[in-house]
């Protein structure tokens, strides 16, 4: 039996009515196969969730196909109005959403309103862009009026990770539906509860049946059925580089559907001796401490100029500890240090730390579990483990940072770029010419100058170079990947 909170808890009323069924054609559907969600703060059972199989994916695609003609013919303004209303309803449900994310993947409930408002604002941003989707016209061929139409694909699929469930939800749902597509979305099996809670709001927001279906389940079953579905025309995926490679293959082997990929990272943050040291230490620490290190664009590889290394490491380590703060149940209003999302994630992060130890690399801070209940890990820092070490090269996805020292600008750029990832890079310096050289030279989809992630404005493209992805989210540009362009040539 899933745990129910005591009646005096502010979250009690939400704990007695958790939605766990698939959402297809504006109706909740229970399936025979269930999978458990455990609370990572307490290790107690939170819910048993219906697993969507191939039949549910087919039913959602049928409904999406049926809904598409009317939805895509609706005025862009009317589609935007549904997205705006959904955003408002999400903000009204902020406490319930905070409760559900805390008991599934351990987000700190006290911090969560900001994340819900962020997701709602993103939906509103795309609601506004719906009316801006235009083609081009050309009179450059004698006797002809030529033009382009930007048209939705039809039925699209989205597969999202667990680390920012509502953020990833909004990043797919906003542009897909604004552009007139219908969508079948699979949340992660670690964190499906907020998407299913939002599903309750979808009919209230005015979306017709079939426009947006939500199918919880495992990647190898539900995700693979979406990625290889013959009637899904476009797939937007966010997750690890390893799975990105698999879904791209499934898409290619089925109907060669268009694919956009938002993948992993091992983002460098370079700090020069002329930078504001305290500001750089704090920003770099906040980037890796956020969400307990479970962010794709976290600054997990720091490069600091040798002349300031001692002072920087001291300030950085202190700022990292302060940013993680107090361990506790994610529902407790005083907690600031979230647990890792589940047992597997905890073991994976501890596995990287232990593997480094067996190679003779001892962290200069942290490196241990906190307490014996819940999946909490200390903020952990390794110093100069070697450029080729596993801890410096692989995405760990936990509160584990590597600080490397360097001597020259050329060396810093070469080492920062020496990775197959290319999501987000940062540089801290007051030398404008150096800023320009690095803005050009860093191999990353996003470059922060005297700032680092989570800085990423909606109106600018978001995405990675190299094996960090393909395509861009956010910004008007992202609508390109949710529409097809048709060229029409007309003799006058
Ligand atoms: P995974 O790649 O493990 O999973 C992502 C999604 O893919 C999940 O819904 C998962 O399902 C599904 N999946 C797994 N296997 C398959 C398959 N064979 N076919 C289809 N779908 C499948 O990533 P995580 O969920 O662990 O998320 C962490 C990763 O996501 C990190 O690498 C992080 O960097 C990256 N990420 C990237 C972002 C970006 O914008 N670039 C943003 C956020 C995260 P299941 O439910 O079984 O897990």
From TrEMBL:
The protein's Enzyme Commission number: 1.2.1.3
Keywords: Oxidoreductase
A molecular function GO annotation: aldehyde dehydrogenase (NAD+) activity
Gene3D superfamilies reported for this sequence: Aldehyde Dehydrogenase, Chain A, domain 1, Aldehyde Dehydrogenase, Chain A, domain 2
Catalysed reactions, semicolon-separated: an aldehyde + NAD(+) + H2O = a carboxylate + NADH + 2 H(+)
UniProt-listed Pfam families: Aldedh (PF00171)
Residues the record marks as active site: 262
Domain named Aldehyde dehydrogenase: residues: 30-488
Family: Belongs to the aldehyde dehydrogenase family.
Annotated protein name in UniProt: aldehyde dehydrogenase (NAD(+))
Organism name: Phialemonium atrogriseum
